[in-house]
Amino acid sequence: MEAQARGLLETEPLQGRDEDTVASADFPSMLSEEEKEELKAELVQLEDEITTLRQVLSAKERHLVEIKQKLGMNLMNELKQNFSRSWHDVQTTTAYKKTHETLSHAGQKATAAFSNVGTAISKKFGDMRRK
């Protein structure tokens, strides 16, 4: 029974050989009338359960929307929150930190270089005025 139950819970999709086996199997002729009736009853029960679950999910989704409306939450607020959360997540990654550090260091070097160039140019203009 446990092996049979485990088979029902498998999450892996059928592979080529499995699909061929299932497609070529003649299940109706392998089942007794009693087994067919049991399977039909189980099928009806599963369909009813699925319908019930869909109705419950739909009711919960409506309730969720009502609560969000009462709290003043709308799509734009949610998008802002999601964006802020995502940006925070990006900023905490190692890659972002390293890149930020490297670019910051490069910016400092560039600023120093421009400052030196500006000083040199000012000095040359000063020298030219004196002559």
From TrEMBL:
Coiled coil as UniProt keyword = yes
Which UniProt keywords are listed?
Answer: Coiled coil
Family indicated by similarity:
Belongs to the TPD52 family.
Any keyword Disulfide bond?
no
Region Disordered: start-end pairs? 1-36
Q: GO CC terms for this protein? A: cytoplasm
Q: Name one GO biological process term.
A: positive regulation of apoptotic signaling pathway
Q: What is this protein called?
A: TPD52 like 1
Looking up InterPro entries in the UniProt record yields: TPD52 (IPR007327)
Pfam hit, one:
TPD52
